[in-house]
Amino acid sequence: MISKSYIERTLKELDLLYNSATSQKKAVYYSKLALLELCGWIEQSMDKIVFHYANHKLKDISNKKFLDKQIIGKTFGFTYEDHFRKMLLQTIGIISLEKLEKKLEQHLVITQLKSILNTLKSKRNDAAHTHLKGVTVIYDAPSLTISNFTQIYPLLKDIEIGLKNL
Question: Do residues 141 and 18 touch, judged by C-beta distance below 8 A?
Answer without folding.
Answer: yes
